[in-house]
Every structure is written in C-alpha cells, then in structure tokens.
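hey can u check if this looks right to u? its 307 residues, i copy pasted from the old doc so theres a chance i mangled smth
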Amino acid sequence: MRRWSDLSPARGRGETPGMERKERRTARMFKWIGIAVGAMVVVLYVFLPVGIGVVSVWPARGDVGDAPEGFADVAVGTRDGETLAAWYRPAMAETAVLVTHGAGGSRDSVREYVEFLAEAGYGVLAVDLRGHGESTGKTNRLGWNGTADVRAAVDFLKAQGAKRIVGLGLSMGGEVLLGAASQVPELEAIVADGATRRSTSELLALPSERPLWRSFTARLMFATSGLLSGDPEPLPLLESMAASRARFLLIAGGDAETEVAFNERFAETLGDRAMLWVAPGAGHTQAHAVYPDEYEARVLAFFFVAP
C-alpha cells in the first residue's frame, strides 16, 4: 500500500533538504543584515555624538606661529584668573576689532582676517580663547565659557584707549561673540561668520530641529559635553542678541543648509539690527576664501557705518 507521504512531490524529487538549507542561509543573511543595521544605528545615534562630546572637551592647546607684521604678542588676563595669549596691533583710528577663532583653532587660524583689518587701519586684538592655542584654562570647543574671555578682551582694548570696539568671529568664535553681546555692551557691532548653535536650547530655536528624531544626536552630544566639562549651558544666542544694543552682520556659507537656516532665523528675529549675507557656493566659514574682495568690503563697510 502506498502512503500519502510517499506521493509527496517534494520528497519524491528530494528537494526538502536543499530548501531547508536555503531557508537557513536566508535567515542567517537577514540576521546579519539586522545586526549590521542595528550596529550602524547605535554608532550614528549614540557612539558618534558621545564621541563628539568627548572631543569637545579635549585639550586644543598648541604652539602658534609668529605674530603678523606690526602685531605684538600680549597676554590678556581674565577676571577668573586665566591668561589668554593674543596678538595686538594698536588702532590708527578710534575703532578696535576683537577677532575670535573657531573650535579647536587659535589666533593663527584667523591670521588673514586680522591682516586685512589691520591694513584698513583698525586696531586688532586676536585672542586664543581659553583652552586653545597658547591660552590657559580648560577646553570647551562649544565656547560655553567664552563670555568671560570676551569681557577680558574688551577690558584690555579699553585700557589701550579704544573708543569704539567691534568684533569678528568665525564659527565657535562668532557664537562666543553673539553669546556675549548682552553682557558686554561695549561691543557695538559684531560680524559672526558661520554661527549656528552650541547648546540644546539654541538648537531648538530652529523649528525644524525640534522633533526628537531630528535633534537626538545633537542633544546627546551637548549633554555629554556638559557632563564631562561640568559647565552649564550659556545664555542662548538669540536671547543674548535680542537683549543687546549691538548691530550684527551674519555670514553663512550658501552650501551649508543648516547654517543658512539658523542665520535666517537670527536675522528674522532681530529685524533692522541684523544684516545677512549668504555666500553662494561657499561652505562653512569659506566665504572669505571664495569671495575675498567682497567679504572684506562688506565687513569694512559694516564696521564703518555701524554706530
């Protein structure tokens, strides 16, 4: 008597073992794909922002090259006991410009900016922010302690006889100046090139960044930096800018979409006190490299007319 199982087509053709092996291979493949995707998500959404938070407090000190012609090496003392290394050139007119560098940089990284300002006759003070270059103090590449450094630099310029003080900052340096605007009222005009956000509260000033899926990594990075540094988040940029009397020239690289969005938000909020230049085809803080003549003309015109 034939049994039903003996008539099974799969068994009859001997296909069942092969199909089982194929299914096991497929299952293993999907398992490893799932593990790889999960690992990628963990790296992108946990390890990477935590790593950036660790780097944000990593020391950024280093030797700085010789001062540009006409500049002297000076030391600027802060009210909380730190010493900021700086280059200084006295003003040929009444206006002095404080120049601040980006995260992990030093006054050497803003050399071309201090040179064109000096050539225009302005007094110039370019400082290494605390924990950077040759300055003392702990490093915070988000610039959370920058207001104390701006206060010290402005006090130095006033002691040198500067009648009018303005500022130019790149990236973190621009954020430091904007963040200090309300607490250092002597800063009458500020050029911020590439400023965006440096804390969660500043991040949320942009509506598109408020959803958690969009801002989770940045929030984690800021939280890591705060935990490791022990520093409190500073006054949000927009609050500081709105509470100040300063005028602002905001510069954004046209190829940096988020940077443009933040600066459009700043300009919209500040109204007539802010001018915005989006440099087409330029990346982050690359406007001067792409458009040197236009950049310098815009900055000098702004400093000349800003009261």
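The radius of gyration is 27 Å.
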